[in-house]
Design goal:
Four Helix Bundle (Hemerythrin (Met), subunit A), alpha/beta, 5-stranded parallel sheet, Rossmann fold
Length: 368
């Protein structure tokens, strides 16, 4: 009996394991690996084909620059298309220049691999276009549906327990407020990956309609990563804060957190400063602080408490250089609690007059 079973066991062991399904879009590590391999193969081609080294030098340099751009801002369609065009140009040059005879087998394999890479890059580029088209055609670009059901179930705030909305992106989204503020009516309305423009679209549904006494606004880091101009980030933050104030909601403007490259050895995607330059983070924070002071809004300085001497996110406060870990949130919690307590103190007559003037300015902005 064991003799009959043995061949089946051997066949089972010899059968190849099913490969994980490959998606059209390359991940950031996969793309970086592809770029690195392209550079090596192109340089090697010039060794085997002497005429190719001179003819393809500009194309190789263009490819290198494309890869640098995409490493800073992955997923950019125009830079990806330029990279694909340069790769195809290199292959066309390789086909047209004279080759030694006999042509080394290793060089043939390298060119074949480059052609496979061109096909893979083309698939990635087409997937980028399809993804962009889906984003443009989606009926809910701001993801209003995310909290729609929770908002419907949420009752009116209690007079004895002030309601505060935490409004932002993944840094807010990942914060388990009930663990840090268990006896408070603090509502999390963060959505991972969002920008300041998307927050504007859902401000009414996820803030105003919930009738909070205060809102903590933390947004802008994803804008920086996507190349949104600083003026647009500032304008959107101003609009969010001023509309809240016009609706008698106390405003707390939070600074952007620093980012770091401390964990890039674990994952190349954790190199954060190219996409979010520390100088840009500082500039946005300086503007936010000035704006809050001019308007009489609360300014919540997370940055100073989480930055290290090099200007980056403290290594032990984040596991990926962007999002706070448990230790990071534990540092942030008392800061926001103090800012909320301060914001909810009744305003002095001078502050009330300033807020009334701001309300008039805001309504005139909307033509009301």
């Amino acid at each position: 009996m064991s003799v009959r079973i043995l061949p089946l066991v051997l066949l089972t062991l010899a059968a190849p394991m099913a490969a994980p399904a490959q998606t059209p879009l390359l991940t950031a590590p996969q793309f970086n690996e592809l770029c690195s391999r392209l550079g090596s193969l192109m340089e090697a081609g010039g060794v085997a084909i002497s005429d190719l080294q001179r003819a393809a030098a500009p194309v190789i340099e263009n490819t290198r620059q494309n890869c640098i751009q995409l490493r800073v801002r992955p997923g950019r369609g125009e830079a990806t298309y330029s990279l694909l065009t340069n790769l195809r140009s290199y292959l066309a040059l390789a086909d047209s220049v004279p080759k030694p005879f006999p042509f080394p087998e290793a060089a043939q394999k390298q060119l074949a691999e480059l052609r496979d890479d061109a096909t893979r890059l083309d698939t990635h580029f087409r997937a980028l276009l399809e993804n962009r088209e889906r984003q443009l055609l989606t009926p809910d670009p701001a993801n209003l549906e995310r909290y729609a059901e929770a908002n419907r179930k949420l009752g009116n705030p209690s007079p004895s327990k002030p309601r505060v909305i935490f409004f932002g992106d993944s840094i807010t989204d990942f914060w388990r407020l009930n663990e840090y503020f268990p006896d408070s009516d603090y509502i999390n309305r963060g959505i991972s990956g969002q920008t300041s423009g998307q927050l504007l679209q859902r401000f009414k549904a996820d803030v105003m309609d919930l009738h909070p006494q205060a809102v903590v606004i933390l947004i802008g880091t994803n804008d920086l990563a996507r190349g949104v101009p600083a003026a647009a980030i500032e304008s959107n933050n101003q609009m969010l804060a001023d509309v809240a104030a016009a609706n008698k909601i106390k405003v707390i403007v939070a600074s952007l957190l620093p980012v770091s490259d401390h964990h890039k050895d674990q994952d190349p995607a954790y190199e954060r400063t190219p996409q979010r330059p520390p100088a840009s983070v500082l500039a946005i924070n300086e503007w936010l602080k000035m704006f809050a002071s001019q308007r009489g809004y609360g300014y919540l300085d997370y940055f100073s408490a989480t930055v290290d001497p090099t200007g980056q996110f403290k290594e032990d406060f984040s596991d990926d250089g962007l999002h706070p870990n448990g230790k990071g949130y534990r540092v942030m919690a008392p800061l926001v609690a103090a800012a909320i307590d301060k914001a909810l103190v009744p305003a002095s007559p001078a502050q009330q007059q300033q807020q009334q003037q701001q309300k008039k300015r805001t309504f005139s902005l909307f033509g009301k």
